[in-house]
TrEMBL record:
Keywords: Glycoprotein. This is GDSL esterase/lipase. It comes from the Eukaryota. It comes from Rehmannia glutinosa (Chinese foxglove). The keyword Glycoprotein applies. Belongs to the 'GDSL' lipolytic enzyme family. PANTHER family: ACETYLAJMALAN ESTERASE-LIKE (PTHR22835:SF677), ZINC FINGER FYVE DOMAIN CONTAINING PROTEIN (PTHR22835).
Amino acid sequence: MSIAFPPGIEHGWFNISFGVWDGYLCLANACNIQVDVWVLKQYGVAESWTRNFILRKSWIPSDLWPCPLFPIKTLRNGNILMSRRSGETLISFDPKTKTTSAAGSRIICPFQALYQLGDSTSDTGNLVRVLPVGPTLPAARPPYGNTFPGTPTGRWSDGRLIIDFTASALGLPLLNPYLNKNASFKNGVNFAVAGSTALNSSFFASRGIIVPSSVGSLNDQLNWFRTYLSSICSTPQGALQIVVPGNFPIGCFPYALSAFASNDSTMYDEIGCIKSLNNLATFQNNNLQVALDSLRREFPNVVMIYADYYNAFQTILRQTSIFGFDPRTLLKPCCASREFNPVSPQFCGSLGVPVCQNPNRYIHWDGLHLTEEAHRRISKIIVTNILLRIKCTA
């Protein structure tokens, strides 16, 4: 599904920003004299675009103009909290007095380090360093890394991942993978390994499921984390700020659409995603949030933030053209894997597998993973909300 722009707004204008404001898709269009802020009141209905307010240049501090601003949330006093596109500066706009004021010069806390656990959605180069298999995997060769940094890094995408954009938003350098022993870990470490499982291998073995030993499990990553902490801390303590992402709508991914293809049209939603798989992801996400609520009660001094990957992904999927993606490639990968198994000779990175000319127009990279542009767009939706909920400490 694609939605037309609001009246008078042309696609491709440089100073258009998108986000989510109080649960609505929001568009902020900055021209030479003002910022027009629109919201989509009824999801999927172009006619429901409503111009909520105008922010004139004369109401905005000169040092914030012309960088585009977009609203994040309505405060209890009725003011509207707005952020720069870069996600670093907040201003509060009073719609009654038509005035703005600083709401905190920086929304990013002075964090010194960031640590990542996970799988291929966040692996920045660990699995490709696991011998003997790692260096032979697709992420170790082109076209992986073609968009950023121009050469393969072990990221399972054409470029940066959500964790990369998160680090940048915190003012930190990109995290180096733990297995790159020559790298600097001054500002954090990435322990994520592509293919890694949340449960230990014994769980799968007892059920006759074979998991490659090279990918390990979450427990292995936690052991790495403990080893690293013991090398830099005399008395290692637990984390006080944790972000836990939910699952993507897996029924919209090419690998799932291929594996569960059916002639039964009732299996699919209006976009073409498999409803039962998305329901499964929603079930998992709901239970994950219940578990987080329980952990918050058990550890009241720890900030635990749920990152809603599911709805962020759905936002860009359902507003494809607005976010700059090609509606014709909505559920197709840029790197056109014919088999969605990374060790298959028909997978992305293998000889003869075609790659699109412009990955920025695609959401999906290889059928299992997303493009850098999709990661960037998803990050813009979720990162600012995450940063607003993080507690800064002295």
